[in-house]
Amino acid sequence: MRLGLYVNLYADKADRPRLADAVEQVRLAEQAGFAWVVLGERHLHRPGYHEAVTSLAYLAAHTERIGLATAGLIAPVYHPVWLAETLAHVDVLSGGRLTAGFVLGYRPEEFTLYGTHPRERVARFEECLELVTRLWTEDEVSHEGRFTSLDGAFLSPRPVQSPRPRLWNGGRVPAALERTARMCDGWTTSFNELDADLPGKIAEYLSYPRGAGSLGAEVIVCREGYCAPTTQAARAALEEPLRGLYDAYGGWKRTSQDAARYAQEWDDIAARSVIGSPGECADRLGRYAAMGADGVVLRVQPPGMPQADALRAIEAYGTDVLPRLRAA
């Protein structure tokens, strides 16, 4: 079981995001044995949100070993050549540590911001990922598509990783799972995917045929996470800022199919999270491994949580939880 740390790049007006805090967290996660630092993407967030790809490059410069992942970039709004070239350079700068995770996107205002349309998102996504993959692996690419035309395009330098960096994709409906199996190398769940639904979703994802250039079929479960000496201490640190995040998500995700899941009681949230004492967290992670998860990405710091509390949780996972998993 590998762990990822989902880093908070957004905040409210009283708590603007600071990449210095992110660097401190990621360096600690690297020392603690986490496999990845994972960044998400937000646009039109007035209090402030650091751009994901340049933030990933910044974190690459301040770390040595930890994997650098996105979960995920809104592929349909980007020009494929820009996306392929920029992400390839992150892989070069980091010495081959990139995992590129994508999503379809759902907010109409984000598509409008980039001059695209939500109704085109599936076709744009598939054309984008096809071209990113080809630009990463082929000496020269010519393509006449619905949205992009290329004539003898190439990247120099190409990614360090051979044959290419791994691709992740999010989504939960059958079409998204089939697309992920066909075009990517790993499926990332949403943070609010119900535990009861996970075994069926994992089995469905693994049942779809892999694409010709697939590098595998990883299952990455995204979860809220906080580890403390006791369950009560974990809840005391996490509950208030997490409720604030979920309240904000109620408006943010109003156009998403899973918006209602952000209006649940604490017990419902805790039931699909990795929160509690070291023993409880290790047990929960072991249950995800038994379901078929290859890794779990933990979001330990909602906006409003003090940096010191976030660092304590990261250290606890490294010191008290990961050794239990290795022993098991």
Descriptive overview:
By secondary structure, the chain is of the alpha/beta class. It has one domain: TIM Barrel (Alpha-Beta Barrel). 44% of the residues lie in helices and 17% in strands. It has 11 helices and 12 strands. It has helices at 19-32, 52-61, 80-93, 108-113, 121-137, 174-183, 198-207, 231-252, 266-270, 278-291, 307-327; strands at residues 2-6, 36-39, 67-70, 73-74, 98-103, 141-144, 149-153, 166-170, 186-188, 218-227, 274-276, 295-299. The chain has an 8-stranded parallel barrel with strand order 1-2-3-5-8-9-10-12, surrounded by 7 helices. Strands 6-7 form a two-stranded antiparallel sheet. Strand 4, helix 3 and strand 5 form a beta-alpha-beta unit. Helix 3 (80-93) packs across helix 5 (121-137), helix 6 packs across helix 7 and helix 10 crosses helix 11 (307-327). The protein is globular.
Quick description:
The chain has 328 residues and is an alpha/beta fold. The protein is 44% helix and 17% strand. It is built from 11 helices and 12 strands.
Task: Reconstruct the topology from this structure.
Layout (H helix, E strand, L loop, with lengths): L1 E5 L12 H14 L3 E4 L12 H10 L5 E4 L2 E2 L5 H14 L4 E6 L4 H6 L7 H17 L3 E4 L4 E5 L12 E5 L3 H10 L2 E3 L9 H10 L10 E10 L3 H22 L13 H5 L3 E3 L1 H14 L3 E5 L7 H21 L1
Helix pairs in contact: 1-11, 2-3, 3-5, 6-7, 10-11
GO biological process, one term: alkanesulfonate catabolic process
GO molecular function: alkanesulfonate monooxygenase activity
Protein name: Alkanesulfonate monooxygenase
